[in-house]
Design brief:
23 helices; Rossmann fold; metal ion binding; 719 residues; alpha/beta; globular
């Protein structure tokens, strides 16, 4: 089933939606995952917004079977302050009784008593399979209840069809059909926080650490955390090591120590196996390293730490979008509509047939049991395939330069590290350019080796140095440096200034043949204002900084009633940070440059907050993009709110400033930077091979950049 059609007029579309007379219930089942509360909140508020009645089902399927106070009507206020809470506040339980026909009969009776015919289930494949079975049996269950005299014929007619929509809440990211499940990104945050902390003690004592992460049947957490922290070795169930892996791993660890690396990190998925289906355990690896190499080795098992804590900005937005889409799916469902699951494909929330996805998920385990590991990786989907593809290195031999342009963004260093190491693995000689194009024309260019980028993944800012200088005024000197160092290709990592720089080089090709080389750009800016890409490197880290700060600010008002906070975010003239940060933090309103507003809008927002203060939620949050309006400044809005809200609420203002640009990159940005840089180097290698004839790189007509969709896009006349 395809996702909802594109909305040309979103406001008008939502105004025309009606859930009047409909009852929706939401439950969480199976293992908990950070972000489930955001999904519950979105279902409740979207349902109420369209006029439907929404119910909580506490304690999962057990609550549905038991009924009574476990099924309660939800209100707008009852989901306030849920966004930042981990786990699931409505509870989750595994229910053996629901697996029986008698249990499902009780559950059906409890739903019919409240006229609930729309069910939103948040859980894993087992929970969603149970929901689909419940839907298939629904008609028969109503007939039985009628025969037993528990309901009448009118109730049967009124509740004749049960609609089911699923959302996958699982930190393992083990469900086929979606790129990411709710909770996965937050679990990665917990893992990377631990690895970053362990790194400091490991370096002090020259230790090897073996970390076990969750993922009994799926190695996603292990694989992505290994990429994000620059681990030396990783074990996942889908790609078991071949015979002799012990020798290869020990040789790799020994070589790293010989290169003066003071620590080794080995990450193991809890379900890791070798090619003979024999378990590979952290203790076995530790004993192996100690016995063969004599390294001081420690084992850390992260366990349920990965499930806990505050959900990341990514999970809050993902869960919120999925929750809204789930309600839309329920409203648009007909009697013949099959159960669907809301999935993330690329950057879009889409609806897919539930049981097709469940069956594909089960096929993965079947393939692994039969030792068809390549098939298992294929079934896992494009996320696994993209990472494994990045590990293949066709050999080539050219000089490639990499540089950062514009403002620093967390994740730039991960991208540089990935580009350097993939380039070297493919046979290239890699050059680092310091301080962007300013350093380029000054000749600040030197060869960069494999070991030079060790430990860069977790470093914030730009270790190469970056400037906003554009190449337009220094084309002659830049062309000369390209000739001096015999540079055959250029990788530029940066934001809008980088895009402008590439266009200037492109336009200068008529006068400078030296610029007729493969040039590729990776979008990296916290503002996320580069056209043609859904996301830029650094934006996720900045969003997490905004959301964490908003959480603390909101918490500071927990003992102070009736307070409104005005918070200014960065982003230039792009409202991405303010908009998405506002969604993730639960803001009351957001002011951005793209959506014009006037004094009447400000007055309406003050009146809204005045009414809000009469409820139990006596706290307000307003986000303002730094350049949203030259007259309605942060100070102006603060003074307006303070004056108009006098006697009802008081105000505080915060300008977040450059804290949004600093800090260690998030797991998403580390992984994103690593993958797109690898893809960029693969494009550069292919292009160089295609244009290399007679010992010379011939004229290349196009400039490319790698957007978040991972499809190369040409820059040129039509850009």
């Amino acid at each position: 089933m395809a996702g909802a059609p594109k909305r040309q007029d979103t406001k008008k579309f939502f105004e025309n939606l009606s859930g009047a007379g409909k009852c929706i219930a939401v439950l969480t089942s199976g293992g908990d995952a950070q972000g489930m509360n955001a999904a519950v909140r979105a279902v409740v508020r979207m349902g109420i917004y369209v006029g439907a009645k929404v119910y909580f089902i506490h304690e999962g399927y057990q609550g549905m079977v038991d009924g009574g106070d476990n099924i309660k009507e939800a209100t707008w206020e009852s989901v306030s302050s849920m966004l930042q809470v981990g786990g699931t506040v409505i509870g989750s339980a595994r229910c053996k009784e629901f697996r029986t026909h008698e249990g499902r009969l009780k559950a059906a009776h409890n739903l019919v008593q409240r006229s609930i015919t729309n069910l939103c289930v948040i859980g894993g494949d087992g929970s969603l399979t149970g929901a689909n079975l419940f839907r298939e049996e629904w008609s028969g269950l109503l007939t039985e209840l009628l025969q037993q005299g528990l309901i009448d014929e009118e109730a049967v007619q009124k509740n004749s069809t049960l609609h089911i929509v699923g959302m996958v809440g699982s930190i393992d990211n083990d469900f086929c059909g979606t790129d990411m499940t709710i909770g996965t990104d937050s679990a990665l945050h917990r893992i990377i926080e631990v690895v970053d902390a362990i790194t400091t003690t490991a370096q002090s004592h020259q230790r090897t650490f073996v970390l076990e992460v969750m993922g009994r049947h799926c190695g996603y957490l292990a694989m992505v955390s290994a990429l994000a922290c620059g681990a030396d070795w990783v074990f996942i169930p889908e790609m078991p090591p071949e015979d002799g892996w012990e020798d290869s791993m020990c040789q790799k660890l020994s070589e790293n120590r010989a290169d003066k690396k003071r620590l080794n990190i080995i990450i193991v998925a809890e379900g890791a196996i070798d090619c003979h289906n024999k378990a590979v355990t952290p203790d076995y690896i530790k004993d192996l390293v100690v016995r063969r190499l004599g390294f001081d080795t420690r084992v850390t098992i992260l366990g349920h730490v990965q499930r806990g804590g505050t959900p990341s900005a990514f999970d809050r937005i993902l869960a919120s979008r999925m929750g809204v889409e789930a309600v839309l799916a329920l409203l648009e469902a007909s009697a013949n509509t099959p159960a669907c699951v809301v999935s993330l494909v690329g950057n879009q929330a889409v609806r897919l047939p539930l049981m097709e996805c469940v069956q594909m998920t089960q096929e993965v385990q079947k393939a692994m049991d039969e030792k068809k590991f390549e098939e298992a990786v294929r079934l896992r989907g494009r996320v696994f395939l993209s990472i494994t593809a990045a590990l293949r290195h066709p050999q080539s031999s050219f000089n490639v330069a990499v540089l950062n342009v514009g403002a620093p963004a967390a994740g730039m260093n991960a991208a540089v590290r990935s580009a350097v190491r993939v380039g070297i693995a493919e046979g290239h000689k890699m050059f680092a350019v310091s301080d962007g194009f300013e350093g380029f024309y000054k000749g600040q260019i030197k060869e960069i080796k494999w070991g030079d980028v060790g430990g860069w993944t977790g470093q914030g800012g730009s270790l190469l140095g970056t400037k906003r200088t554009l190449p337009g005024k220094h084309l002659e000197k830049i062309a000369e440096q390209i000739r001096i160092h015999n540079i055959n290709a250029l990788l530029v990592i940066g934001g809008f200034e980088a895009l402008e720089s590439l266009l200037q080089l492109y336009e200068a090709r008529a006068d400078y043949e030296d610029f007729c080389i493969p040039i590729c750009m990776l979008p990296a800016t916290i503002s996320n204002n580069v056209p043609g890409t859904d996301l830029s490197i650094g934006a996720d880290t900045s969003l997490n900084a905004i959301v964490e700060t908003c959480d603390r600010i909101k918490q500071s008002a927990s003992g102070t009633k009736r307070r409104v906070f005005i918070i200014e975010t960065m982003g230039g003239y792009c409202g991405y940070l303010a908009t998405v940060g506002g969604l993730a933090a639960g803001a009351d309103t957001v002011y951005i440059y793209e959506e014009a507003f006037d004094i009447r809008d400000l007055q309406a927002n003050v009146e809204h907050l005045t009414q809000k203060m009469k409820t139990s939620i006596q706290r307000g949050l307003v986000l303002r993009n730094e350049n949203c309006n030259e007259n309605f400044t942060t100070d102006f809005i603060y003074q307006l709110y303070s004056e108009e809200g006098r006697g009802v609420f008081d105000c505080r203002k915060n300008i977040l400033g450059h804290m949004q640009q600093g800090g260690a990159p998030s797991p998403f940005d580390r992984n994103f930077g690593t993958k797109v840089a690898a893809k960029a180097m693969q494009w550069i290698t292919r292009t160089l091979k295609d244009s290399y004839k007679g010992g010379k790189v011939f004229r290349v007509e196009q400039v490319f950049y790698i957007p978040a969709t991972s499809h190369q896009r040409p820059l040129g006349m039509n850009s």
